[in-house]
């Protein structure tokens, strides 16, 4: 029996679903965890007993207004035997304060906290996959390829339709600021047709997405998987639900046809959406504080050996949240790269190769697959590690649990530096002694799926897009016998 979660002003029932007032609604996707374990994770080189960190986590937990947080807490209560609530209107939301971008990185979590977080995301993802979320959408984020004139015209069509007087709700639509004076988009023409939309057609830039992600109730992308990856890149933490129209070359993640956009969006806004939570990684660059010319130090000793307790060896130098993969490769260097892999507080192996690809399940069909890695269903809670043209034939792709912190470092005695790229966008040089921490992010990617879709959708995508395992069918013995009888086959 279909369940629905409704959010609508006036506490009125719709389609048999529970409802909550608009002031009680908040849509950010983020994961909570308990700060009750004092065990220190060496990979972070930061003590979890930091009073500021504990105070910040407690404050965040006490003031959260995210319904996903509440669902996660509900799941936790049901595991501990306490009464569990069923509908969104059973929760008490507090939206008195604007959500803050809490800067507690997953690399700082203890093993127990990281496991709790990962389990919570998995359980929540299963719940969201079987229910329909009815959102109170007022502010919509539109993303397209700004250099593609055809797609810009299609984006204008959607914006015009959303802003039309015939809509039941007066939507505010944000488009990229480069379209404001684009002749193909013709923003001025839209305003001349209906002057009332002037205050409802607005423009976003990267800074707005980074600082105020909670501003958007819903996101729509027009393009391929690359456009969807760009949406993930723009929203490094909180991500609004993203509905993608397939207008690109690949379609692993884009599930909706543009020709049906009016029916698709009307159904989504009136009757709700089904959301798939996609695992994202948080990657942090850690810079060595040792002089690069000093090659007497050992990265293994610093991270898991006697020097591991020295929190002055490395310091963070930027974090990125990615949906597809992190690649550490040789960059422009003519020789292969040398890297060392660490799994939690243990040294894993050294890799002599062109590089190493660390992929999410979503990214298993990208660079990971080209490098010989495994195809992986997006619901699997794993980290995929694949060497790119390894110098040893014995190195094989490795699948690790998402409850660990993986580190990919450049040893101090490496001949050259390496380069790290994040979802194919940011590219950073790693000097000898530097490393990258990779762990499950607290901010999954909310991908809107067609109603009634299931795991079979993924099989259909890889069969259609990759021509997976496609070949001419083997003839039966009966066909051979018939050809022999007809004289078409000779021994």
Keywords:
alpha+beta; 491 residues; 24% strand; six-stranded antiparallel beta sheet; single chain
Strand-helix topology:
Blueprint: E1 3-6, H1 51-63, H2 67-79, H3 111-129, E2 131-134, E3 139-144, H4 149-163, E4 172-176, H5 187-193, E5 201-204, H6 206-211, E6 218-223, H7 225-234, E7 242-246, H8 261-271, E8 274-278, E9 281-288, H9 299-304, E10 314-322, E11 325-329, E12 337-343, E13 346-353, E14 355-359, H10 367-370, E15 382-388, E16 398-401, E17 406-409, E18 418-422, E19 426-430, E20 435-440, E21 445-449, H11 456-466, H12 477-485
Parallel strand pairs: 1-2, 3-4, 3-6, 4-5, 6-7
Antiparallel strand pairs: 8-21, 9-10, 9-20, 11-14, 11-18, 12-13, 12-17, 14-15, 15-16, 17-20, 18-19
Characterization of the model:
The protein is an alpha+beta fold and about 500 residues long. About 25% of the residues lie in helices and about 25% in strands. The protein contains twelve helices and 21 strands. The chain has helices spanning about 50-65, 65-80, 110-130, 150-165, 185-195, 205-210, 225-235, 260-270, 300-305, 365-370, 455-465, 475-485; strands spanning about 5, 130-135, 140-145, 170-175, 200-205, 220-225, 240-245, 275-280, 280-290, 315-320, 325-330, 335-345, 345-355, 355-360, 380-390, 400, 405-410, 420, 425-430, 435-440, 445-450. The protein has a six-stranded antiparallel beta sheet. A hairpin with a 2-residue loop joins β12 (about 335-345) and β13. α2 crosses α3. Mean pLDDT is about 80; it is low at about 1-50, about 55-70 and about 80-100.
């Amino acid at each position: 029996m279909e369940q629905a979660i409704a959010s609508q002003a006036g506490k009125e029932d719709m389609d048999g679903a529970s409802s909550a007032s608009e002031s009680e609604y908040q849509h950010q996707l983020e994961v909570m965890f308990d700060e009750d374990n004092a065990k220190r994770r060496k990979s972070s080189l930061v003590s979890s007993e930091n009073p500021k960190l504990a105070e910040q986590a407690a404050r965040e937990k006490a003031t959260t207004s995210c319904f996903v947080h509440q669902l996660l807490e509900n799941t936790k209560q049901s595991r501990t035997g306490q009464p569990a609530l069923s509908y969104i209107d059973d929760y008490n939301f507090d939206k008195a304060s604007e959500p803050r971008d809490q800067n507690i990185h997953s690399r700082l979590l203890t093993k127990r906290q990281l496991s709790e977080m990962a389990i919570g995301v998995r359980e929540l993802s299963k719940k969201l996959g079987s229910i329909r979320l009815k959102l109170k959408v007022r502010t919509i984020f539109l993303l397209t390829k700004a250099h593609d004139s055809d797609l810009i015209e299609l984006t204008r069509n959607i914006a015009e339709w959303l802003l039309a007087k015939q809509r039941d709700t007066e939507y505010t639509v944000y488009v990229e600021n480069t379209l404001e004076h684009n002749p193909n988009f013709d923003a001025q023409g839209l305003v001349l047709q209906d002057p009332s939309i002037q205050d409802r057609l607005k423009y976003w830039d990267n800074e707005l997405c980074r600082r105020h992600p909670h501003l958007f109730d819903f996101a729509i992308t027009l393009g391929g998987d690359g456009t969807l990856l760009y949406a993930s890149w723009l929203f490094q933490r909180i991500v609004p639900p993203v509905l993608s129209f397939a207008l690109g070359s690949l379609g692993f993640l884009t599930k909706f046809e543009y020709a049906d956009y009016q029916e698709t969006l009307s159904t989504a806004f009136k009757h709700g959406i089904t959301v798939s939570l996609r695992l994202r990684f948080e990657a942090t660059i850690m810079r060595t504080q040792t002089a690069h010319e000093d090659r007497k130090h050992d990265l293994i000793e610093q991270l898991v050996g006697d020097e591991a307790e020295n929190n002055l060896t490395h310091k963070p130098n930027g974090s990125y949240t990615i949906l597809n993969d992190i690649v550490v490769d040789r960059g422009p260097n003519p020789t292969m790269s040398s890297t060392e892999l660490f799994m939690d507080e243990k040294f894993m192996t050294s890799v002599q190769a062109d590089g190493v690809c660390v992929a999410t399940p979503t990214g298993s069909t990208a660079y990971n697959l080209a490098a010989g890695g495994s195809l992986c269903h997006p619901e699997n809670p794993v980290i995929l590690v694949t060497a790119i043209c390894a110098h040893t034939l014995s190195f094989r792709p490795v699948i690790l649990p998402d409850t660990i912190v993986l580190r990919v470092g450049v040893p101090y005695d490496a001949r050259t530096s390496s380069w790290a790229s994040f979802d194919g966008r940011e590219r950073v040089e790693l000097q000898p002694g530097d490393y990258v921490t990779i762990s499950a992010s607290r901010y999954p990617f909310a991908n809107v799926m067609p109603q009634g879709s299931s795991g079979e959708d993924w099989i259909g995508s890889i069969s259609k897009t990759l021509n997976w395992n496609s070949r001419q069918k083997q003839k039966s013995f009966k066909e051979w016998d018939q050809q022999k009888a007809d004289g078409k086959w000779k021994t």
